[in-house]
Amino acid sequence: MTSLSRREFIKTSIAATTAATVGLPVTKAALAQAKAAEAGWKWDKGVCRFCGTGCGEQIATFNGKIVAIKGDDDAPVNRGLNCIKGYFNGRILYGEDRLTKPLMRMKDGKFDKNGDFAPVSWEQAFDEMERQFKRVYKEKGPAGVAMLTSGQSLIQEGYVAAKLMKAGFRSNNIDPNARLCMASAVVAFIQTFGIDEPANNYSDIEQADTMVLWGANMAEAHPILWSRVTDRKLSNKKDIKVINVTTYSNMCSSIADLEVIFKPNTDLAILNYINREIIERNAVNTDFVNKHCVFATGPYDIGYGMRPTDKFAFEAEKDTQKKQLVNKLDKYEAIAQRRPDMAGKDIEHKAAATAGAHWHITFDDYKKALEPYTLDFVAELAKGDPDESVADFKKKLQQLADACITKGNLMSFWTMGMNQHVRGVWVNELVYAMHLLQGKHGLPGNGAFSLTGQPSACGTAREVGTFAHRLPADLLVDNAKHREFTAKQWNLPANTLNPKIGTPIMVALRGLEDGSVNFVWTQTVNLFQSTPNSNHWLKAARKPENFLVVSDSYPTLSGKVADLILPTAMIFEKWGAYGNAERRTQVWRQQVEAPGEARSDVWIMLQFAKRFKLKEVWGEQPLAGLKEDGYPENKLPNVLEEAKKMGYTEDTTLYDALFATAANKKVAWPDPIAKGAKNSTVDFLGDGWFVEKALFEEYRQFTVGHQHDLAPFDKYYDDKVRGLCWPIVDGKETHWRFSEGHDPYVKAGEGFNFYGPLMKAIPSGNLDKVTDPTPKPLPGKAKIFYRPYAAFPEQPDSNYDLLLVTGRILEHWHTGTMTRRVPELHKAAPTSVLCMHPADAQKRGIKHNDVAMVESRRGKVKMVIDTKSSNKMPKGSVFAAFFDEAVQTNQLVLDAADPISAEPDFKKSAVKVTKI
Amino acid sequence: MNLSGILVVAAPGRCEEVAEALAALPGIEVYQKDPASGKIVVVQEAPTIENEADGARALQKVPGVVSVSMVYHYFAEDPTLGASSVTVPTSH
């Protein structure tokens, strides 16, 4: 066959497969031809690597390489479709600059902090890493080391990382980059429902009558979900409403019935206005609320998650930093918080350390709290476009309330706009309040749905629990019963586990700067690019006493400031599992081998674990600030004697004690479910146990019977299965949680049961304080929170006169570590642009496509001004994507955070833009 | 050479017009259309993935197009893939 005719042959085959996938008629002959074109290829199921949607893929391999990818038409998430990011799932493995050897800073054949990167053997890499880890561990104990991981880490990788750190090194200093995107959502779930993760699923899009986007650019951030929304809207005879509530006009507005442009942080006020209206209009579902909800509130003056000291601040940041302790209440906050006489006066953030505390209030108190949020007040406060009249904005707010207070089905969606927010937990909770007041949650077509940005932010970071305060399946390190259960599962002596919450990401990075943390190991994350106020951490990494290990597949900015770079296998080069935003766990087999000496993160961690004996970690360890029943003060106890009674010796390695246990070694490789697929992790470990399966099964024991039930490992590999939504009880998935008939944990006759077990007994009080500290239980109930409007700390002023918002655009994802590797993605946004209102540009003498200087209190960068973007900024606000390695947007960004969730607010920094 | 099968959805009543506009674009062949649902199946040929993705973005800008989704992507013959420079490990 000539190349031309072969090309035509493949083309018609692709056309036939595509048509069949999207449900158009195809002849049998055409399908037979399609099959012939793929002769010799092996197809297997996989999951898209690029966002939290969790689209199913079919991957074709031939001669050891991936040759084609198609959307999986059996996948309920995407039904055969991919967004543009889908083009890169196979390609991403084959970038020319893949890391294929460990790289270490060397001088005269030895590690030297000031040396240049040179390739070294794995043995050399581990030797130095071990030496540095043990130096720091000996000096500072478990608090001096940290592992920072990812919402892109596989379920098994998260499990190994959490167990190695928490049970092995007895350090809770492990935190995922999901802290940067999902932590506020998590806390709101726990505080409201007592259990993490959404109640609803993507099929609610097809059953909703009204869909509200809260600060979420779904068209660019979740295009496949957006295609389902547009499909629902455009191909339906019913009047389906789509509403875009946002701080700037974006692509989603193209099909929206209503676009509401609000001023940042006033989403809090808008939601309180709607919730006030629900009561005013007698639209409260009284029966539901009485049976299944209680009302609650917490302290207001909780600070902004910044350091309480200016010792490490740049001179220019000191005025912002001071607000952590004291700042002036503005007139709107004063009214909204029912203390109008305090307008313009200093308030002290006395509740910064107890920001998460909350207590019961009465419905009457709740109603009283909402009184200030009248239409007039909120319209004046929240209007985000200076060119819009208050009267017009008022109409929009009314229309928004009309749409949200409905007898029809109501869905709310949000992602970073509400999570990366100095009051992120609060604003998440106000959306739940809106749904709970009307009894519209956890039902087909009805629910408040927090979407995720990363492919396994749910499956790994949240479910496995790679956060500084968590253990698997929603257990917590500072809960004695949870530690006891975990110790039993992991066969650990009592009091091996550390009860003190570890360092969230920003605290770990600040630790590198202030000397409390000296060893950091990052995995699948580019934190020195992706965290706010990055100039501080970039400098801190290079301090002589610090040692930074970066595990990644490609060179990154974090790699540049590292001491050791470990090359890792990617997605289809290893066996793995992800969990998406609708609690769907999906798996794949290894399809191809990793290049050069790149290895899976599981292999790397297990090899490292072999280098530690129990006597080095399970003896007495210093832990400043520890005060806990059963533990000596400021110390973790020596548990070696107890360990010996359990059959360990002082010289047992962490590998043998925690991972290659007798039970796990019985899970043998090869296994028939492999169907001929390789397993490089097992091959390189060389001792014949099926690591990914054994660890998944071990992890699963945490979930079964605890409302998180996962199915057996093999079930997910069934040819017919396209992921399964937990809890899976008696072989059945759960698509809606908490409601009778959908959730096996809700008994007949209950209607609803918000059975989440956490924070289910709280004190009682009024709107200002606790009046009865006795914890009062609220079994089976959800909390409807009152949370007030509060302003963000760094308001634009006469010097820094614009507000910088950061976010994602379709062409890039994560921090560009992967997507930027692909030149075509890079080309679509060749250098970082700053989207700006044309009048703001003109005022500064700047034209579209000019390069200008963008400066904040923390740094300055040059950016290309874009006044014609699909992101249309209101006057006074500018937008930048946060990924660009050439232009580090994050050095401009303030590292203020939600004080309850420790998630930074990337979206509200004051900057100035000048012509150059 | 890269090839991709793409689903383009046209706005109600605009299937014919959109299909015609698509067919005029470089590297695009229209294989099937269904005016009732607005679905149009096209195959795009492009030298590299770069051009493939650019092309898919260009489809989004055609007047009357509601959505563009990639369904099938064949990239084995892309000359810019770094795979050829990759050495496969031979030992542990």
Number of DSSP E strands of chain B = 4
Average per-residue pLDDT of chain A, rounded, comes to 95
Radius of gyration of chain A: 27 Å
> How would a crystallographer describe the biggest sheet of chain A?
8 strands, mixed
* Amount of helix of chain B: 10-25%
- Unreliable stretches of chain B (pLDDT < 50, length at least 5) are 83-92
Tally the structural domains of chain B: 1
Describe this structure in words.
The complex is a heterodimer of chains A (916) and B (92). In chain A, 31% of the residues lie in helices and 18% in strands. With 916 residues, chain A is α/β, with parallel strands linked by helices. Chain A has five domains: 92 residues, 2-Layer Sandwich (Phosphorylase Kinase, domain 1); 308 residues, 3-Layer(aba) Sandwich (Rossmann fold); 295 residues, 3-Layer(aba) Sandwich (Dimethylsulfoxide Reductase, domain 2), CATH 3.40.228.10; 48 residues, no CATH class; 114 residues, Barwin-like endoglucanases, CATH 2.40.40. Chain B has one domain: Lrp/AsnC effector binding domain/regulation of amino acid metabolism (RAM) domain (Alpha-Beta Plaits, 2-Layer Sandwich), CATH 3.30.70. Chain B has a four-stranded antiparallel sheet with strand order 2-3-1-4, covered by helices on one side. The longest helix of chain B is centred in the middle third of the chain and has 12 residues. Chain B is elongated and about 40 Å long. Classes of the chains: A alpha/beta (916), B alpha+beta (92). At the A-B interface, helix 1, strand 3, helix 3, helix 8 and helix 32 of A face strand 1, strand 2, strand 3, helix 2 and strand 4 of B.
Which tags fit this structure?
heterodimer, A: 916 residues, alpha/beta, Phosphorylase Kinase, domain 1, Rossmann fold, Dimethylsulfoxide Reductase, domain 2, 8-stranded mixed β-sheet, 6-stranded mixed barrel, 31% helix, B: 92 residues, alpha+beta, Alpha-Beta Plaits, 4-stranded antiparallel β-sheet, 2 helices, 4 strands, disordered C terminus
